[in-house]
Specification:
The chain has about 280 residues and is α/β, with parallel strands linked by helices. It has helices spanning about 25-30, 50-65, 95-110, 130-135, 150-165, 185-195, 205-210, 240-245, 260-270; strands at about 35-45, 70-75, 85-90, 115-120, 125, 140, 180-185, 220, 230, 250-255.
Length: about 280
């Protein structure tokens, strides 16, 4: 269900009792009422492997069962329609997490982005009908284990883990490459609590969810058993197996290694109808 981008949502003014000091986290906990939810997609055209974003947007229109509007932050594609709110933002760093932080701040400051919003990516696809709860429920892959990775990502994960341990917080890995629900108020509280985040190079979803003032039990992802996510990592997987797994899942994503002619053809068959987001 696509809500036209012109729809505005007024942020209610919190009612504060006289002589009552309200902390940043208490203010952040006040949930605004909104009639739709923004899906924010950071996008760098330079690193697109094909038509991932086009198919991702078709999947949102086809399978979402609540009101949304789309905001893309980064680079513009020629096929964007007026139903996309596009916010230009140049890539500022070769460290992907530093660039992500910058785009996240743009989303926080934009009046086109609802107070509660969904953070997604151009290579995340909604494969079956979803309700709000499918996004809202937090998801993890286990603990933050930087020793299992290499390069900048391992450095960013280690930096994130050390920050959380310093504050005696959980060290769960929320970097699942699935759509995630974020709250502008809670994000502001997070930046105030952890000033070092301004330096960049942290895995923000793991800092965000591990530091929320209320914790809920997350879903632990295991692609062979869960009913949430199918990650595509190979060039030509067994399509019959893919279809069987997707019959029980709601999201699919692809790694760089998983984008292939097979995947593009599969997405074209699955999402053949153009969306309102393309010319």
């Amino acid at each position: 269900m696509v809500t036209k981008k012109k729809t505005k949502v007024e942020e209610p003014v919190p009612q504060v009792q006289e002589e009552t000091a309200v902390s940043v986290q208490e203010e952040a906990a006040l949930q605004p009422v909104q009639d739709h939810t923004t899906v924010v997609i950071p996008y760098c055209k330079e690193f697109a492997q094909g038509k991932e974003l086009l198919f991702a947007l078709r999947s949102w229109q086809k399978n979402v069962r609540f009101g949304i509007n789309i905001v893309v932050i980064g680079d513009r594609e020629e096929w964007f329609s007026d139903e996309i709110t596009f916010i230009e933002h140049e890539r500022i760093s070769g460290n992907a997490q530093v660039d992500t932080w910058a785009k996240l701040k743009v989303a926080m400051e934009s009046p086109e982005v609802t107070p509660l919003f969904i953070w997604s990516n151009d290579d995340i696809y909604v494969m079956n009908p979803i309700g709000f709860a499918h996004v809202e429920l937090p998801k993890v892959t286990g603990l933050l284990q930087p020793e299992r990775f290499n390069g900048l990502y391992a450095e960013n994960m280690n930096r994130t883990k050390e920050l959380l341990e310093r504050y005696r917080l959980p060290i769960l890995n929320y970097g699942t490459h699935t759509p995630m629900l974020l709250d502008k108020g809670q994000l502001a509280a997070m930046f105030e609590r952890f000033p070092k985040l301004e330096e960049g190079g942290y895995l923000f979803t793991s800092v965000y969810y591990n530091s929320l003032p209320w914790q809920v039990q997350p879903v632990y992802l295991d692609w062979q058993r869960d009913q949430v996510l199918l990650p595509v990592v190979s060039q030509k997987p067994d399509e019959k197996r893919v279809l069987d797994l997707l019959s029980r899942k709601v999201f699919m994503n692809n790694a760089v290694s998983g984008y292939s002619p097979w995947l593009e053809q599969f997405l074209e068959k699955t999402f053949s109808e153009p969306s309102d987001f393309e010319l």
